[in-house]
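Changelog note: in this version the structure field was regenerated for every chain. One regenerated record is shown below for reference.
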Amino acid sequence: MLRSLSKSEIHINVCILILQLCFNFTIIGCSIDHSSHRDSLFKNVSSSITNITFSNDIKENDSLNIILKEYIYNGGGVATGDINNDGLSDLFFSGNEVSSRLYMNKGELKFEDITEEAGLINEGWATGAVIVDINGDRYKDIFVSQSSIGGLRESRNLLYINNQDNTFSEVGDQAGIAETNDATQGAFTDYDKDGDLDLFLITHEYDDFNPNMIRPRRTKGSSPNTDVLFRNDGMAEKGNYPIFTNVSEKAGIQYEGYGLGVIINDFNQDSWPDFYVSNDYISNDVLYVNNGDGTFTNKISSWIRHQAESSMGVDAADFNNDGWVDIMTVDMLMPENKHQKLMTGDIDYGRYKQLQNYGYEPQFLRNMLQIHRGLSPHGEPYFSEVGQYAGIYKTGWSWSPLFADFDNDGLKDIFVSNGFPKDVTNLDLLNYWTMQINNPNNDLKSYLDKIQEYMNDLEGLREENFLFHNEGNLIFTDSSRAWGMYEENTSNGAVYVDLDNDGDLDLVTNNLNEEADIYRNDLIRDQENILGHNFLKINLKGAGENRDGIGSKIWLYVNRRLQYLEHNPTRGYISAMNSTLHFGLGEQNKVDSLRVKWPSGIQQVVHSIKVNRTITLKEQEASIYENKKEIERQILFNEVSEELDITFNHDEKPYNDFRYSPLIPQKYSKLGPGITVGDLNMDDREDFFIGGAYRQSGKFFFQTAEGKFRSKPITDGDKKEEDMGVLFFDYDKDGDNDLYVVSGSSEYGPTSKYYQDRLYINDGKGNFERSNKVIPLTNSSGSCVVAADYDKDGDLDLFRGGRISLTLYPNSARSYLFENDNLFKDVTESVLGLSKIGLVSDAIWTDVNNDQWQDLIVVGEWMPITIFQNVKGSLKKKITLPYKGWWNSITAGDFDNDGDTDYVIGNLGMNSQYRGTKKEPMQIVYGDFNNDGYIDGIINVFKEGVNNIRKSFPVPPRDELIKQLSYFRKFYDDYDNYASASMEDILSHLKSEEYQILLSNETRSMYLENQSDFQFKASSLPYDAQLGPVFGMHPYDLNDDNNLDLIITGNNYNTEVMTGQYDAFNGLILLGDGDGNFEKSDLPETGFYVPADAKSLASMYKPNGEVMMLVARNDSTLLAFDATEYSKEKMIFKPNKNDAYAEIYYVNGQKRKVEFYYGSGYLSHSSRKLSVNNNVEYLVVYKYNGDARKIHF
C-alpha cells in the first residue's frame, strides 16, 4: 500500500535533490555504422543469437521517479557462475521492477532462460547478486540483495540454495540474512578463517537526512546506512544451508555510508581479508582492516589520502604487477568540457574545509586510481592516487570499474560501465524547474504536474562504456572505440567472463530499459589466432565448505615477471565474477612457477606449467609451504627525529586565499617552511634553522657532541611575518654564520611592511640579534634567497626571489639582487637589468659555462627557465630556455660525470588536470577586466569539446568566473552559453589591449644535461617523479658507486577544490647511472618515507661523519633521516666560505665537478661539506676568484 505524499514532503525531496546534484551530462547523438568495425576486439552479440532478452525496465509514475526516489536508476547487477557443473558459465541478471533472470549457457554463446522452472521469479527490487557455493556441496547457490526503494518494496534479501537439478529453494529467512536495511550488494569471504563463508553486506537505506548536508559523521553504528557483517555459524541442523549471525557491532562495523560498491582483499598481506566500501554522497569510503580477532578497524584515513566525492563502484587488483593490490573507484566526472561545465556550479572552498573540520576525509570529483606502494617503515600500507596521470579519471556517470586482462598481454586493463536515464544535473534546467515547481501559487496537483513536466523535459544520458588499455608505467589508453564499445546505453552492473571458453574474457552488462549486452571477445577466434595471446585459467577446489577457495591468492611467475590475483568474486558494481581465474601471458609459452596460498594458510607451488589451458588446483594437495627467507637488503635511511630530539611542528593559521582571488589555482599562503644548515656556535658541529609560519617563531637546532639536538626559538615575541627562504652565510666576514630570512606568503597586501626581509647577526656563540639597517626595503612577498660572490670582491651577495601578489596574480612580484658592500645595496636594475622576472619560486648561483663566473638560474610559475649569464660581474645577458612551466625548484650536480654542471628542475608533474605541451600549451589570460585595480586571470587548458574536437577552454566553472569577473555575466547568463564557450569565444568579448597572456608548455619535472655554451639536452625524469609537484631535491651519492643520485620530496595540499590536493608523493630516491639516467629505488630499500605536504629538503652531517636529511613539511612535523651504512666510511671535506667548486679525481681516472652552494633546492640550504669515499685520489678546489689548491686523500 503506497502512502500519499504531502506537498511539503515533495518540496523537501525536490530541494534535497537540487542540493545533491553537482554534475550534468548531455547527449551528443551520432550514427554509428557497426559494419565498419569488424576488426574490433569486442563484438556485441545480438539477442537473436544469445537468446538473452533480459531488460531492466523501469516505468516512472507520480510516486516512482527520480525526484522522489533518487536511487530508482541505480540499476541491477550481473552474477556469473557454473550452476550445473557443465564447465560453462551461466548468467544471472538482477531486476528492479522486473523479475531477476537466470540464463543457462548452452555453448557457442547460446543461452536458455530457466528462471521460471528454477523457481527464481521474484517481485522485490533486486540490486546486487552473487553466485556462490555457500554450503560446500559443489553446486553454486545464488544470493540476491534487495532494496525497499524508499518504502515501495520489501527489502528482503534472498538466498537461493541449488537443489542440484537446476532448481533452487529460497532460505533467506531461515539462514538469518533476509531482514536488513536497504541492501546494495553482498560479498562472501571467510573473515574469521574457520573454514566457511561469511557475508558482508553493504546498505544504502533512505533516512531523514539530506545525504549531502554537513553534519558530524555517524561512526558508532547509529545510522540506518551502517553496513552489516553476518558470521557463518555452520550448517542448520535440518537443511542444506548455513545459519548466519549479525555480528556487526561486535566486529566494529560501525561507520555510516550510502554503500554502492564493495571489494574484499587482503590489502596489508597479513593473511586476513579486509573490506573496502565505496560510498555515495557526503559519506566517506570505508576501509575495514581485519584485526585477526573478529574485529575490524577503519584505516582509510591513514592508508589513503583522498577519495572520490560520490564513489560508485570499486575494484581492486594488481594492475602494475608489483605484487600489491591497487584500488579503483569511479565517480561522475564527464570526459568533455561542455558536460563538465553544465553540471558544475559554485565551488565552495569553505564547505570543503568545514567537512574536514567535521572529521571527513578529503573527497574530489573524479575517478580515483590508488596505487598500492607497499608497506611504510611503520608496517602499514599506503597508497598514491594517480588517476589523472593514468588518464582514467573522467568517464561520465560511471558505475562499474573492472580490472581484467582483455588482450592477454599480461597487464590488466580497465572496463567502466556508465550512463543514466535522466540527466537531472543540467543546472539551467534545475534552476528553471525549481522556480516553476516552487511557485507558491501551485496546489498539490499543479505541484505534481510540474514535477512530471520536469521529468519529461529531461534527456537521457546514454553513453558508451569505456575500455582502457594498460600500456605499463601507470599509463592507460582509451581504447573504447578501437575495442568495440560503440553502443550508447545506460549500463550498470557488469562482469567479465570467458563465456565461450576460448581463452579470452568476454563482457556482460545489465542495462536500464534495454536488453543486456553480451560482448564477445574476438582476441582468440581459433588456434591459429592464439599466437601472442597466450593464457592460463585456474579453477580452485577448496577442502572445506569454502569449495571455491574464495580468498585464495595466486602468484604467477613468467620470465622473472610477476602477476598476482586474489580470488574474490564480488567486485565492480553490484556484480560478481565466476570462480575461474584468468591470466594473460602474451608471447610467453610456459609458466615458470605458480604459488597458491589458501585461506587456511597452507600453500603449494607448481612448476613449469603449459599454457592455453585450464588447470585445477586442489587444497587437499597443498602442504605447509615456507617462503624462502628474504635476503636482507641494506636500508639507506632511518627516520630519527624523535630519538635525536628534533621536534618541530610547522603550524599554519587558517587563511582562505580563494576568498580574495577565486580563480587562482592554489593557495599561496602555505608555501613554507625553509631550512638552512651551518655551524652556529663555532664548535665544528653542524646546526640548522627552520622557518616558522605566520605568528610562529622559527627555531634553531644546535647539535650536541652526542649527535642529539637542543632547540631555541628565534623570537619570543608576536611574529607577523611568514618565513620562506632562509640562509646561513657570513654576511660581515667575522668568521661565523649569520641568518637571512625571507618574508613571504599572501596574507598581506602588495606592499605590506610584513614582507620586509630580516637579517640576524650571530655573535659567534649562536646568539642572534636582528639588524634593521643592513637590508634595503623589500615590500613584495618573497620566496628564495641564494648567495654567491658574483662580482669576485671577496664577500657574498644575495639574490632574493619575488613570489606573489595575490590580487595582482599572475603579474610578477619584485625580485632583488643585493650587493654586499658592508650594507646590502639594491643593484637589481643596474646589474641584473630587471626586477620583475616572474613568479619566482627558486634560484641557484652556478657556473654554467665553466668560465669561473657565477651565473644565476631562476625558475618559477608561468616562467621559462631563465639564465642570467655573468659577464665579468654583469648579469644583464638573459638566456631563456623554451621550457615554460609551473617550476617549483632547481638543484644541480655533475650527473653525467663530464666536468660541467647539469640541472634538475622540479615542476607541477603530470598527475593533474593542468597540463601544457608545446602543441597544446596551458595559458592564463589576465588583465584588470573589472576596472577595479585588481588583476583577474583566467586559466585555460585543452580539453575535448563537441565531437571530441580538442580546444582550449577556460578552467573555472561559470559561477567561479562570475564570482571574480562580474563583467562576463552579461555574455554568459546561463550555464549552456558558458559551457559551449572556448577560450577564443571568451577573448572575443575583450579588446586585445585589455589582456596579456602567459603560457606553460611543460609540466614534467626535467633533467637538463649541460652540453656547454648554454646549450642543454632536456629529458623527463622517470614517471615516478611525475606523480606530483616536486619541491625538495638534493643530489648525493647514496650507494657509493661514484655517481650522483637524487633525493626528492613534494606534494601540494593547497590547490583549488576542483583539482584537489596533490598527495601522491611519499619521498623518492632516483639512483643515477653516471650518464644522466635515473632509476627509482623502492621504499623498502630506502626507508625514505615522506608523506604530507613536503617542502624544503636539506642535508647535514653528524659528528661521526654520517649524513642526515632534514625534510620540512607545511603544516606538519619536521622529519630527520639518518643515513645508514653507506655514509659511515666516507671522508668529509669542509670547504672554506669563499670556495666555489671542486673537481673530484678518482683513482680509476673518472672526474666529476661539484659546486658548493649557498642555497640549492626549494627554500633549502644544505651543508656545504663534501663527502668522498676511498675511490677518490685528490680534489682540486677553486675559490670564487679562481684561485685553486689541490687536496690529496
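Spot check on this record: Residues 637-916+1001-1192 form a domain with the Methylamine Dehydrogenase; Chain H fold (CATH 2.130.10.10). The chain has a mean pLDDT of 91.
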